[in-house]
Amino acid sequence: MAKFTDIFIRSLKPKAKRYDLRETGGRGLGVRVSPQGVVTWCFWYTYLGRKRRMSLGRYPAMSLKAANAARDEAAVLLARGIDPAAQRQHERDTAKQRYEIDQKAPTVATLVHEFLTHHAPTTFRPNTLRQYESRFQRYILPAWGQRKAHTITPRDVVALRRSVSGVFDQVKGQWSGAPNEADRVLSLARQLFKFAVDEGSMSANPARLVNRIGATKPRQRALDDLEIQLLFEHLPHASLSLITKAAIRLMLLTARRVNEVTGLPFAEIDFDRQLWALPAHRNKSKRDFTFKLPQQAVQLLEERQHLAVDQWVFPSPLKAGQPLNANVPTKGLDLCFKAGRIWRAGTVYRA
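Now predict its structure.
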């Protein structure tokens, strides 16, 4: 035994065989010196009647002061009836398991891919899916793509929302960014992380408790009878194709959404009973609808049937075998609204 000082520890010389030295005072602290001259701090103790040794660290990387502190921590565990060496091994095993789990944990980019591949196609309409893909590429992937999904926190979600919405100017009374889009991005993040929780990839949804800005207001505007009449009057004179005009007319006659009309196949129409059977996968409510068609709509559909070139009531003039793009009648309506000096209603089916 010896009194440990830095000078004494530095003076230790290697021998042909490994040897141990313990500090005087019976505290259990000591060193083990290898034939190569490596000095290792050790703690000798007795646990459940068995003498044991615990390595604390190497000198000089671990100083005398640090070795004493490590020894004291081990002694506290021992006083509580815990084997300090076993406890350290348990902590190392736990850290290793956490590291392995973290290495296997999916990144946000991986989650987005799984969401778009396995979940979204059977849950959302094609147009909604395209919007989601765009928001993932524009906002979520640049911010979090390479991060492990389980490391995303509510604060990260708030930061992303603010990066889209900007800040609110009290003087001007408006946002510097896009608050409505920020709420949509937040909603998409919630859906993504809910999917991850359901799949077992995450234990909690960090976006669930983050509040929306609430800037989006429900649209109350609808076309009145005079405006609908003006649309019908201006439609024949609009610089639009016959297919586009026919699609807009059917939208006005049936009050259905633009994608439901442009993607209409003849198979959904029962001409004998004058019924339109709209399947669940083609409407926002995800329910099957069958409704009576007005006589003018039946006449329009019969005219389209005589001109039919494939299964679609309104075939695309650019892509053979495909229905008319939903953006075409939407832009056509804008022209009609301007020609009739009608304030844009947003969605014609509200009329």
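Residues 343-351 have pLDDT under 50 and may be disordered.
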